[in-house]
Write a structure and sequence with these properties.
Shape: elongated
Strand content: 15-25%
Number of strands: 3
Largest sheet: 3 strands, antiparallel
Number of helices: 4
Order of helices and strands: HHHHEEE
Strand order of the largest sheet: 1-2-3
Distance between the termini: 31 Å
């Protein structure tokens, strides 16, 4: 079974659930959550944040691309392999569990604190 590129919706769902943080990208995942939950336009979100919608969307594009790369990395993990991620501002070790039915448990991803 080949890997399929994550859709925009999959990437946004991953962002909302995991809230990954990258040192070199200045985008707060809460911005996306706020936009979706309040059903705001990017212009409205930018105005609230005191920035331009173009700047906000540029950072979001970089952020989405990096999250998609992270999702590929996670999906390419081998059984038992560990990956350290920043989730909600704290380091979390992700490990691919050794189970028979990986799809049933979200590709076998488990978090270890």
């Amino acid at each position: 079974m080949g890997y399929v590129e994550p859709s925009k919706e999959d990437v946004e769902a991953f962002i909302i659930e995991k809230k990954p943080v990258f040192d070199d990208i200045n985008f707060d995942p809460e911005i996306l959550m706020q936009k979706i939950q309040k059903d705001l336009t990017w212009m409205e979100v930018a105005k609230e944040r005191g920035t331009s919608s173009t700047a906000l969307q540029t950072e979001l594009s970089k952020y989405r691309k990096r999250v998609a790369e992270l999702m590929k990395e996670v999906n390419a993990m081998k059984l038992g392999e560990e990956l350290v991620l920043l989730v909600d501002g704290r380091a979390v070790i992700m490990q691919l569990a050794e189970v028979a039915d990986l799809d049933r448990i979200h590709r076998g991803m488990i978090c270890m604190d």
